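TA notes. Do not distribute before section.
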Amino acid sequence: MEIKIVDVTKKFKNKTVIDKLSLVIGSGSFTTLLGPSGCGKTTLLRMIAGLETPDTGEIYFNGRCVFSREKKINVPPEARGLGFVFQDFALWPHMTVFENVAFGLRASKNTQNLEEKVHEALHAVQLEDYADRYPHQLSGGQQQRVAFARAIVIEPECILFDEPLSALDALLREEMRSELKALVSRLGITAVFVTHDQIEAMSIEETIQIQKEGRQKRQAAEEELGRIETELKNKLIEIQ
């Protein structure tokens, strides 16, 4: 799925969080939105998902308009065909792993071959043997895998990740970065990954959007990552 954002703005009270942002996220890419806290990364992600409404601008999925203030178009979140992985995993504690993964299918009444779809999603994240367990019986990394399985079971064209590794310890974060990228690549879907961690962004993305005060500041292609990482390590770049 290609995502095209055109002149999107968003204010909360008198504060402009996103200011006339235009951006194209290529189909099948793994794009990281990198920037300090409060720069609008999560707000942008939520506007793509339909969980926040832009004040102005337009958003397109594969050329189809899903939001336009001028045209009075605002496709609801459940009709946008996206998966969403939250920072805190957002698993239902009273539900088994199976039921957590099945939740989106049941909510959308897409229950045909439900059991098969859930087991396929759990197989993708190597948790087939954990279907009957509850979230409190899992490690942090396993809970993250359940959240990812729940996102992919609805067969989305794009998955949005909102700082999904921040609750994990450093060693587990490194392991999960590689796993997430490999899984997304194998599934052939578009991914948008929000983080404020520069090292995390450098290790996982194909494209970086560094934002401050809602404006797109830098876009780096994969071949530039080595140069940027060196500059960051030497403290020669200050994100302003």
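Switch to the second chain here.
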Amino acid sequence: MISHRLRTARAAAGFSLRDLESQIDNLVTAQALSKYEQDEMMPGSQVLIAIAKALGVSEDYLLSEQEMSLDGVEFRKKAKMSAKEQAQVEAQVLHLVERYLAVEELLGLTIEWDKPREAPYPVLSDVNEADRAARSLRQDWGLGLDPLPNLVELLEERGIKILSIMADKVDGLTAKVLRPNRTSLPVIVINSADWAERKRFNLAHELGHLVMDIAPGLDCEKAAHRFAAAFLMPAESLWNEVGKHRTSVSMAELLQLKNLFGTSFQAITYRCNDLGIIGEQLFKSLFEIFKDRGWRASPFKEPGAISPEKEKPQRFERLCYRAVAEGALSEAKTAELLGISVRRLNDRLDHPEAAVSFA
């Protein structure tokens, strides 16, 4: 039955029932579409093909009996969102995860969640305990204290599905993907429009939500911020670079630290203040400079901008190219999974410079 898949695909497309009725040229009414979604009727082949085309999916996708759902969804929002807007984002995420897992399973390359053995790390009385959680995670995953060159690839290797979507009101999202008779998988969603430094910090922030157990009454967002800073910039590494107490810091030094840790001037300054390396007066002075130079507002053009490609999820796309090369997927199916035309797919396959990563 197509009810679950149809509701998910329609929500992901942002269509109401009447919108979908219009998109399929009124082949059936909104009332009939509602009955499909309630498992009270099944569409004929002509209507099924039209619905699939309108929603950008295949008929096989709509007819598949595999069901997945999202659990424990937590949004990090830029602005207030309606229930409908949140539902649309959740549906889009579920839709992308289903495609991702289908390609993994087809190739026999599914990566299960490498849950840290000590997680969830308790944060009981103070958000500063998030530092300890970040240090414990690095230890559990054997990461040492070195800077992390590519956070997306690291998290994908540990079994966390990373998705990038266009969502004006969302900075990030975490959830668990529930699958029948299978273990759940964590997913982190980032906004593809964000600057790369922010993406890195948001990834670490959402990771904090996944691995910490924050006591009621504590500010969860502050704890996740503290975790992200500590995970990306371990105290020992930062002390080695800048010392334990400073009364002045130059822009040139901040640029070098940015290049080393892959974090913004602002994140570095916050971290130095949290660790007591710099005091409140210097902290405020630096942020006045950032404001005067336009670095605190969009498009956040700090010096030494990290390449947008550096923290863009690419594993799903790589798997799609591998599947079509090995004959496991047709060109038409691969193009559908990537959300592009067959002609565009062939351009990418023949001319790598055209292979702009799928977001």
